[in-house]
Amino acid sequence: MITKNQALTADNLHYTGRHDCTVHIGPRGGKRVNITAVRRSGKTQTWKTRPEDFKMPVKFGLYESSYATHENANDWHTLEDCPIQEGN
Q1: What is the full DSSP assignment across the chain?
Q2: Distance (Å, rounded) from C-alpha 71 to C-alpha 81?
Q3: Cβ contacts of residue 1 below 8 Å, gap of 6+?
Q4: For the whole model, what pTM was predicted?
Q5: 9 and 16 in contact (C-beta within 8 Å)?
Q6: What does the pLDDT profile of the chain (88 residues) look like in tens digits?
Q7: What is the domain partition of the chain in residue ranges?
Q8: What is the Cα–Cα distance from 72 to 66, expressed in whole angstroms?
Q9: Second label for 53, Cα 20 to 30 Å away, from 2, 47, 70, 85?
Q10: CA 63 to CA 30: how far, in whole Å?
C-alpha cells in the first residue's frame, strides 16, 4: 500500500491489482519474476480541501497508462516495499 507521501516522492511502483509480485523457480533452477512495474508520468495531484486524497499518473508498457489514487492505494507498493526483494 502506498501513502500520500510516497506518491509525492516515488518514481517507480509495482502494481498488484492483476497479480502479486512473485518469483517462480523452474525444475532446472531458472528464475522467472512476475512483476508489473510502472513509472511516474507526471506530477501527483493533491487538493487543499481533501488533504489525504492524491492522484498520481503512471505509465506501463508501450501504450498503457493509469492513476495511482487514494482509492486504489492497496494495489500499489514501492520498490523498497516489494515482498520478493527481501528474498534476493
Answers
A1: ---HHHHHH-SEEEE-SSS--EEEE-TTS-EEEE--EEEE-SPPEE-SSSTT-EEEEEEETTTEEEEEESSSGGGEEESTT-TTTTT-
A2: 19
A3: 73, 74, 76, 77
A4: 0.83
A5: no
A6: 999 999 999 999 999 988 999 999 999 999 999 999 999 999 999 999 999 999 999 999 899 999 999 999 999 999 999 988 755 5
A7: 4-78
A8: 11
A9: 85
A10: 30
- Among 88, 64, 62, 66, which Cα is nearest to 76's? 66
Kindly state the DSSP code that residue 55 receives in the 8-state scheme. E
Cα angle for residues 22, 14, 2 (degrees, 5° grid): 120
Overall size of the chain counted in residues: 88
Read off the DSSP letter of residue 58. Answer: E
- pLDDT at res. 7: 93
Confidence at residue 83, expressed as pLDDT on a 0 to 100 scale? 87
| β-strand partners of 82 | none
C-alpha cell at 83: 515482498
C-alpha cell at 49: 480541501
